Amino acid sequence: DARRAGHHRVAIHTEESAARRLARQTQERALRKAIESNALALHFQPKVDLRTGAVIGAEALVRWHLEGTGDIPPAQFIPLAEECGLIQRIGEITLEKAFAALTAWMATGRPPVPVSINVSAVQLDGRLLAAKLRDLLRSNMVPPELIEIEVTETAFAHDMEGAIAELQAVRAMGVRIALDDFGTGYATLSLLQRLPVDTLKIDRSFVSEMIDTRSSEEIVRMVIALARALGKDLVAEGVETVEQSRRLVELGCEAGQGWLYARAMPFDVLMAFIEKSHSTEPGRVQSNMPLA
Ligand code: C2E
Ligand code: MG
Ligand code: MG
Ligand code: MG
């Protein structure tokens, strides 16, 4: 009968959550081990001038390769790390690795490349970001303007004033701030006006639909106008086709990143990629470079 069926469902549900809990605990242990054994890597996706394909920066993206399992996407383990308190340590690791990469790059004497680093809302809550950045800027020869911190609108959801204060402290050091996945959160125009933000990153969902869907193109147009009105820089995320790239330039967005140009790659591969991008004549759009 219905009650029995209901009871049965509850039993299954409980079993499933137990299995999920176990899987989570296993993954949490594996993540701890990965952190201890320095198994997390930082890869870099080039950011390009959409008109020429020249590299104008790079976004650092954390990578976890679990032996015997394969690559675990950050969309899976970052939320886990946020829940189990490992995100602070991961945040420190990514900042340290990004500074190490920039320091190595500067030692070659080549023109410097700005690097963007993603920061979780939980890291802002802990108020440790500015302090960590201050340490790293002191102990490395990296000019602050080469560092950009990427936050999403969710960073302002719990403690908006606290997050704004922390980012203001970061920005006061000369580090830049980008608002990631812009348009997918709940940021109102009046909030946006108050945020200490230098760059708006147009979310991939709008870019991927802008050619076929009128409303997505209108949103992209609006974000570009908004950035102009507020004096913010713009970067389009997830540029996958030449049509998207051309349309973005026509609408007034001249910086972007996406698989049309390159996926995230290890730092030594990025260095070679940049060399090549500079030796290419301007005007030629590079695409589908060999992947790492
Ligand atoms: P995000 O910061 O918006 O990063 C962009 C994501 O889109 C990256 O996925 C990137 O590999 C992917 N992507 C770039 N170009 C294209 C494209 O043309 N097409 C498609 N389909 N995807 C593209 P990834 O590396 O899996 O990272 C996912 C999210 O995980 C990031 O979104 C970011 O929110 C978070 N994340 C990554 N690394 C870190 C980190 O070091 N710390 C923190 N807190 N979060 C990170
Ligand atoms: Mg990002
Ligand atoms: Mg993004
Ligand atoms: Mg995005």
Automatic annotation (TrEMBL):
Single Gene Ontology MF annotation: cyclic-guanylate-specific phosphodiesterase activity
Source organism of the structure: Niveispirillum cyanobacteriorum
Parent-record interval covered: 80 to 371 of 377
UniProt-recorded name of the protein: GGDEF domain-containing protein
Segments traversing the membrane: none
